[in-house]
Amino acid sequence: MISVENLTKRFDGLTAVSELSFRVHPGEILGLVGPNGAGKTTTLRSITGILKPDGGRILVGDIDVAARPVDAKRLLAYVPDTPHSFDLLTVFEHLRFTALAYQVENPEPLYEYWLRAMELEEKRDQLATTLSRGMQQKLAIACAFLHDPRAILLDEPLTGLDPRGIRGMRASIRERADAGAAVVVSSHQLELVERLCDRVLILGRGRELAQGTLGEIRAASRTPEHATLEEVFFALTETEQDRT
Amino acid sequence: MNRAVLFLLWTQKKNSVREFVLGLRHPKRFIGALFWAAIVAGLVLSQMLVRGEGRFERSGASPLTVLLSFLLVAALFGGLMQRGMTFRAADLDFLFPGPFERRTLVLYRLLSLYPISLLSTLFLMIFLGPRLESPWWGLAGLAICQLIALHLQTISSILAASISEKTFGRLRTRVQFVLLIMVGGGLFATIMAFGGGGGMGADVRALFATRTFAILFYPATAAGALGQAAGFADAIGPLFGLGAAFLVTLWIVLGLQVNFFEASLESSQQFARVMSRVRSGVPIRSRHSGERVRSLRLPALPVFRGGGAIFWKNLLNALRSLRVVFFGLIMTAVLTSVLVGVIGELGSHKQLWIFGAFLPFMLQQHVAFDFRRDIDCLAELKLLPVSGFSVAAAEVAVPALIAFCYQTFLVLGAGCFVKLPALVYAAPIVFYPPVTLAICTVTNIGFLLYPVKAVTASGRPNASGATLSALINMLVLVACLVPATAVALLLHAVLEQPLWTTIGAAIATQYLVDLAMLSVLGRLFAGFDVAREG
Q1: Nearest-CB residue to A50 (from B88, B97, B101)
Q2: Phi and psi dihedrals of B260, rounded to 5?
Q3: Which of B70, B83, B460, B510 is the most buried (most CB within 10 A)?
């Protein structure tokens, strides 16, 4: 569903992402991890078509993002690390806008479903900017999931959520994947990535350090058989730092 | 036009009106709105009274043409400096990854900005209307010309997005320099053209009436002609031309095949940071994040110990924000040119005295290297082993110093063009400092008492709160000047003391008031709850 081939992105001469390749199949959740400045957000923004890659090709459901961005975006949902809401739209109006934008047919039951799922029912007529950060995060995710996207990109999706919200969000992400969506979750919460994701891609300075299931990246990093993702992560990123 | 985008535009406008009306239930907002309504009503009334007087000269180009030409050029360069259209944060999150054609996003942004352009047109018409032969045609011309300027700005900003970041970085300073010269020159030309009569004003109007200028700035020329139209027959030609120019520029802006997303992301984030700081009453940071500067050592002088270190820090801030300070100097230059004209016309330099004294109040954004810039690090300042009074004194020192430079520039600048008495030249050193200190202290007191929130609880910019805050500052400042004025009146008019005794006593009184106000500022700082939202 999502195919990134040799993605390279430079900013002002600085290479943010270099020759990165990965695939995410329908029903799969890929965890994107790496230290600050590793190129996670740049990768996600390139997939959405907001950033124009300097090299490589990105396909979303066989559609080339560079050639047919609007068609690719119809299949996509992207939630940035700090989502911003329209200050003059209520919670419900955000959902209505999203349904119109993605031409969702018969959206009424979906509004109710996502308002309930994200615990936003009582806030439906409130202006979105009066919500707490966690609630704004939930609203952004409700809007992202409303049109049943086939590819979902989540940048730090659990920031600002309370423990109950985190549990609910994990369940929702898994539910979308089980419904056939390809999901990419970028996060610093390694425990979450370990529990939620089917495969992990570890980035360092814009390059792939390891990719695969936890077992595969354990083997690649030569860490013990029962090493956690955190241990694998530090083994790989510290080796990378030593090398540079 | 995309249905979702139409829904977004309509709902936002509808909700903004509803929020405004509901917001009037709050006294602070109500007073702010009332204040603005009173100002607008006052302006309209005053302009209605002068209707018929001071009509624009019919020889040469209309001053309206000169003003609009300047606006068109400023729009072109402004767009170029912007590099990519600016969108709001929510637009970036919802619209950029959404299934929208690029031209839909451009049209959405233009439609969001049209009302602002039209509102500024109405505001301009308050001043220009009474001076035009035909205010209604003039209004139409001005409105369409403003929209064309918006299109031009958008075109240049989108085209600038196609320039690489590196090249743009190299060009930025040069373009800014050209822009500054053009702003200065354009303002000067406009002021001269509005001055009426002969001399340089007539030359400027004649220049803009030449064929080359008329073609180059066609929308401005047509709008100027509309303002002077005697009837429908005179108006139809320019109106048709303006309509065509509007459509052509719109067609160009919607047809541009440039991927502006990436550049817009950067410029929008930069714009959002600037707006957030402006709305908070915090001065704009002039440097970009990540920009490297050379670290300097704290000089080993006793004056830079304790509170002096804060003074040094603020001084460094000012030196590293020379662009902001320099822009203040340009504003001073423009104001000086206006004052020179007024002094020349009235033959009195009283205006210069008053204007110079209150100049720091007008240029607050350019001198505010004080608590307003330190709002994010007040907690750290409170941890310093320095008394509240020392911190307060150190914080207002740099604004006072910059204000001194502006005031000196004003007086010396005016002195180059008109003959001034020797006493005026002493003003920046002798008379202005106590008033400047009062202005800087009162503004900071106002800020600590009422740190204007970036947005209200409903998420709307707190414009009425900022207005109210400025109004209160003004009232407190007047109150601070009362004792010195009273002393001066008592000594001079009642006790008939010599002029120098009177002046000396008034200045000493003002310094005493300043000390008391600084003490209040120090106490406010010491008691400031850093958990409050800045």
Answers
A1: B97
A2: -100, 0
A3: B83
Of A52, A80, A130, which is closest to B262 when you measure between CB atoms?
Answer: A52
Other C-beta atoms closer than 10 Å to the C-beta of B466 total 18
Provide the domain limits for residue B14. 1-49
Q: Among all chains, which residue has been given the structure tokens 């000089």? A: B299
Does a structural domain hold residue B160?
A: yes
pLDDT of residue B277 exceeding 70? no
Note whether residue B284 is domain-resident.
no
pLDDT over threshold 80, residue B424: yes
For chain A, report the end-to-end CA distance as a whole number of angstroms. 34
- pLDDT of amino acid B10: 93
pLDDT at residue B327, rounded to an integer: 83
Q: Identify all chain A residues contacting B166, using CB atoms and an 8 Å cutoff.
A: 12-13
Interface test with B, best of A51, A88, A92, A150 (most B CBs within 10 A): A88
Query: Residue B96: its chain A contacts at CB < 8 A?
Result: 48, 50
B425 CB-contact burial (10 Å; exposed 0-12 / middle 13-18 / buried 19+): middle
pLDDT along chain A (244 residues), means of 10: 91 86 94 90 92 91 90 92 88 93 91 91 89 88 92 88 85 92 92 90 89 88 84 81 61
Q: For residues B63 and B16, state if they share a domain.
A: no
Asked if residue B145 lies in contact with residue B218, where contact means CB atoms within 8 angstroms, the answer is no
Per-residue model confidence (pLDDT) at position A74 = 92
Give the number of C-alpha atoms closer than 13 A to the C-alpha of residue B5, restricted to the C-beta side. Answer: 20
Q: Are residues B111 and B45 in the same domain?
A: no
- Cβ-nearest to B459 among A93, A130, A143: A130
Shared domain check, B96 and B193: yes
**Chain B residue at shortest CA distance from A78:** B97
A100 and A65 in one domain?
no
ipTM of the predicted structure?
A: 0.87
Query: Does B285 fall in a domain?
Result: no
The closest alpha carbon to B163, from B260, B269, B77, belongs to B260
Q: Looking at per-residue confidence, does B462 or B85 come out higher?
A: B85
What DSSP state is assigned to residue A231?
Answer: H
Q: Do B256 and B307 sit in the same domain of this protein?
A: no
Q: How many domains does chain A have?
A: 2
Range of the domain at A39: 2-75+152-243
Q: For residue range B297-332, what is the model confidence (pLDDT) as tens digits?
A: 667 777 777 788 888 888 888 888 887 888 888 888
> Are A88 and B455 in contact (CB < 8 Å)?
no
Q: Which residues of A touch B97 (CB under 8 A)?
A: 48-50, 73, 76-78
Is the Cβ of A49 closer than 8 Å to some Cβ of chain B? yes
CB count within 10 Å of CB B167 equals 9
B358 touches chain A (CB under 8 A): no
Using an 8 Å CB-CB cutoff, list chain A residues near B94.
Answer: 86, 97-98, 101, 143
**Does A78 reach chain B within 8 Å, measured CB to CB?**
yes
Flag if B12 and A86 touch (Cβ within 8 Å): yes
Q: Considering its fold, how many domains does chain B have in total?
A: 3
Give yes or no for residue B101 having a pLDDT over 80. yes
Helix (H) or strand (E) holding B488: helix B463-489
Domain identity same for B39 and B105: no
